[in-house]
Each structure stands twice: as C-alpha cells, then as structure tokens.
Write a structure and sequence with these properties.
With about 325 residues, this protein is mainly alpha-helical. The protein has one domain (about 5-150, about 160-305). Helices cover about 75% and strands about 0% of the residues. The chain contains 16 helices and no strands. The protein has helices at about 5-35, 35-50, 60-65, 70-85, 90-100, 105-115, 120-145, 165-195, 195-210, 220-225, 230-240, 245-260, 265-270, 275-280, 280-300, 305. The protein is globular and about 55 Å long. The chain starts with a helix and ends in an 8-residue tail after the last helix.
C-alpha cells in the first residue's frame, strides 16, 4: 500500500546521505580552486591534450570540468574560445572528454560510498575518457572529417566573484537536488505500484544481463542513465548498504554510470559547444557498453578476495 509519509522519509534519508558526501567535497574543491589546483592540473594535462589533437590550453577546460562540473568547464571554454579556435572535430573530442570525466571529487566519492574503490573509479573515468578521445581523434583525422570551425552556441552570464554568491549558488543547487530526489522517489513508488518499472526492466534486462548487472540494480541503473550519477548512486548506496545489491552489481552499475549518465541533460549541454551529436551520444553509449562488457569479461570469474581490490566486499 502506498504510504506518502514513508516515501517522504525515505527520500529525505537518501538526500541527507548524499549531502553528507557532497558538502565536504564541494567545500574542499572551492579551497583547492583558491589555491590554484585547477591551473596545476591544467599544466599536467597540456601534453595529453596535444596527443588528442587539441591545443594545450584546452587542458584548463578539462581540468576545471574534472574538478568542478560540466557547467564550470563550459564557462572556461567560453572564455578561451577566441584563443582556442577549435574545429568541430576538436570540440567533439573535448566535449567527449568532459562528458566521460567531470565532477570527479563528488561523483567518485558517491561511487566510493556505494562500495567502488576511489582509485578504480578515477582510473576508469579518466583513462576511458582519454581512450575515447584518442579514438575520435583518429577517426576524424583519418577521414579529414568535421574540420570546419565550430560555433559556440551559448555564452554564459558573468559569474559574481566572492564566497557569498558562490555559497548562495551551492545552497540553490542542494535545494534543487533535494526536491528532485523527493519527486524521484515518489515517481518510482508510483511506477512500481502500477507495474511500469517491471515492464521497463524487462525491456532492459537482456542488455544489463549481458553487462553482468543483476535485477536488483536495474532500476537504479536506469535512474542514473537518465537523471544522473548522483541520483542513481544515492539509490544504489541505500540498496548496497541494506545488502540488497551484490558487490559485483555495484561495481558494474557504478562503472556504467560513471561513463554514461544523465544522457539527456548532459548531452544537450555539451551540444551547445557545437560538437558532433554522434560522438556525444550514440558512439559514447556504444563505447561505454563495450568498456563495461570487457570489464565484466575480465572480472566475472574473480574470487571475492580479488574482486575486493575494486569493490567493497559484502558485509
């Protein structure tokens, strides 16, 4: 029987778990920004960007994206746009890097709380972003495709300097996350009540089964793919801590979400850079599925003690 109060309390509990992870990391990243961590990371990335056919200065865009989020990277990209003079092929590579590896301090911490080791998450997302970027660069270069100048379709409003405007913006973001989680849990309860979740899961089951993701993680994976890793991860944390999701399912689901999540919103945001939509969505999803398939093939026969190098064993 549907119980609104129980649903509200569950959503509140999930949101508080997420906030306890996010708030210290958000404050820490702000301090690192003030100390110049973004510029330091940018200098490290500059040689790698050139291997991908990108200007070394574009490392600042990816560094900002990895430490902060996609929107922060877009702001830096807009500021550097006249200097970078990117082609459609180049901006497609850069936007793909941003999609596969962004907001890592927050999102990797969420994956860690769900059970996946921090080092593995960082290696997977940064490493696979570089591999995908290298693949795209090779394709575009071989066919001499998309070499026309890219058109930036969005100009961000100037950001207010100082801690108070930043703090107000973060409070607004947290309030929005809380609201979305409340609506999400209510919607999931209703969809489950009317059997819609089971129908969706049945349609996805062949693909998720191929990837080694069990039934208990199917709905949570779908949430992450559509709405974002924070939401899917928050639900997965709750289920994993309750012992409802096996460690292998946690590993494969969080790895899948790490490489492809918030497929609608994030993809639309990156299209504002003038990038090729084929690279941002269908090719990225296929690349993600191939990467997770290989991960499953490599680890599916590992004994629990060896798998424990990647994901926390069941309690």
């Amino acid at each position: 029987m549907f119980a609104p109060r129980k649903t509200f309390l569950r959503a509140h509990r999930i949101a508080m778990t997420l906030f306890r992870l996010m708030i210290p990391v958000i404050l820490g990243i702000r301090l690192l920004e003030e100390l110049g961590a973004v510029e330091w990371l940018s200098a490290l990335l500059s040689p790698l960007m050139e291997l991908l056919g990108l200007p070394g200065a574009s490392g600042l865009v990816w560094a900002t994206t990895m430490l902060i989020n996609l929107f922060g990277g877009l702001v830096v990209l807009a500021a550097l746009w006249p200097e970078l003079s990117l082609s459609v092929a180049q901006v497609s590579v850069l936007a793909s890097l941003m999609l596969l590896a962004h907001a890592l301090p927050v999102e990797a911490r969420i994956a860690q709380r769900a059970g996946v080791h921090l080092g593995f998450t960082l290696l997977l997302r940064i490493g696979m972003a570089f591999v995908y970027g290298l693949m795209l660069h090779g394709i575009y270069s071989a066919g001499d495709w998309l070499q026309q100048p890219a058109q930036l379709l969005w100009q961000p409003p100037p950001a207010e300097a100082g801690w108070l405007p930043w703090l107000w913006g973060q409070l607004q973001n947290l309030a929005m996350i809380y609201l979305v989680i409340q609506v999400l849990i209510l919607l999931l309860e209703l969809l489950q009540r009317f059997g819609i979740v089971d129908g969706i899961n049945r349609s996805l089951r062949p693909v998720l089964h191929l990837l080694g993701i069990g039934r208990e993680a199917e709905t949570l994976t779908l949430v992450g793919l559509t709405l974002g890793l924070s939401y899917g991860g928050a639900l997965l944390i709750e289920e994993a801590e309750a012992g409802h999701v096996a460690p292998r399912d946690v590993l494969y689901a969080m790895s899948l979400l790490g490489l492809s999540h918030s497929l609608i919103e994030d993809t639309l945001l990156m299209l504002l850079t003038g990038a090729d939509w084929v690279a941002l969505l269908p090719l990225r999803v296929l690349f993600t599925l191939a990467a997770i398939f290989l991960l499953v093939r490599m680890t599916r026969d590992w004994p629990p003690h060896r798998l424990g190098r990647l994901v926390r064993p069941a309690a």
